[in-house]
Amino acid sequence: MELRGSDVWVDITDPPFEARRAKIMANLREAFDDHEYDRIAREIARLRLLGGDPSDAVAEAILWSYERFEFGWTHAYAGAADWLTLYDEHANDPETQLICLLEIVGHIADDTLREENYPYGEGVRNYDENGFVSAMEDEDEDTVMAMLRGGLAAGLSFPDFERGLSRAALAHYAAFGHCMIYVTKAGRLIERFGDRVAEPVLLSLARHTLFSSREDQIPEFRHYAEALASWGKGRNGTAPEASEFKGLNAKNAMKLAARHGKSDPEALYRALLAANADNMLHYDMAYQKQTDLNIRDNVGWLDFTHTIAFANAARKTCAKYPELCPMRCCNWPASAAATTPIRTPPWMTASGGSTTPTISSTPASRVCLTTAATSTSSRCIT
To answer: In the β-sheet with 358-361, what is the strand arrangement from edge to edge?
Structure first.
């Protein structure tokens, strides 16, 4: 505004794009820090209307949050990868796209609300895959972080770290399979947002694996290491039927998988997937609402869906690194046995027909589950 003689001239020209974007991002940061869900939505919408890329809000949320995860990744980052897939699938629906981005940023904000910073080590060392996996096994966070920083400084990218991260994720039955799932989601986030999120995503992912509980150290799953050691030493080169896993505890499920370790990995995978699908199919959801159960019998819907999520992640990883198949096929039966079906739900007995899942895959990257009772609506994962 300026005075020209007796006239007051007001400049109503919009500020430059970068200045307006910076203001929106500053407002978004304030909303993020307070987990103001409605305000987060408004600022992301403003970013889109400005002509910016609204998905930048996700990249910024990662940068704002990764040091505030004391124990590394949560579902917030993992879910982000899948919400972004839905975002891309609704390119002509800005309202749905806004919902996708809001769920990501809101979840990250909620998980880091009022958390202080938990800095990562600043050391830098040359990345060596075997040394990295060994440091992960020893829970040596300083060495792990230094190797990741060193690798990034040397120009390495996610594919260069992926096998080491996968080996560490599968070295134990850890965090109920989350570690392996998170590795695949990390790759997708880095592929989308590039170098600006590579270090935050990798450091927080490694921290999660380091701090994950190793359930194979407790009696129920302690057979994991023995099953890995015996893998492929049996004489049976034929994959078992899915029904053979039914009712087995974790130890016997892993022993069965290891005994058939010489069989075709894809055939063994399909048998395990069908066993997991059968568990999920037979689960009566009323069970999870009961309050008088034993602690070890606290089984909910997530327990079943999680085995399918793990299957998807492990399949993709082992397609790249076949040598990890034994680790995948020992880790998975532990999850399957931990979610043994409780009882057949009423809807199933009323529907009639066979309820044993069958597996088809056409093409090979798309696995579909079908039962006679639900043959009109197969369920597929890719």
So the answer is: 358-361, 367-370, 379-381
Query: Cβ–Cβ contacts within 10 Å for residue 322, how many?
Result: 11
**pTM, full prediction:** 0.85
Tell which CATH architecture fits domain 129-213: Up-down Bundle (1.20)
Residue 49 Cα distances to 20, 43, 86, angstroms:
11, 10, 20
Burial category of 261 from C-beta neighbours within 10 Å (exposed 0-12, middle 13-18, buried 19 and up): buried
| Burial category of 126 from C-beta neighbours within 10 Å (exposed 0-12, middle 13-18, buried 19 and up) | exposed
DSSP letter at 73?
A: -
User: What are the residue boundaries of the structural domains of the chain, listed by start?
Assistant: 17-111, 129-213, 219-353
pLDDT in tens, 142-195: 999 999 999 999 999 999 999 999 999 999 988 988 999 999 999 999 999 999
Torsion sign, CA atoms 313, 319, 323, 329: positive
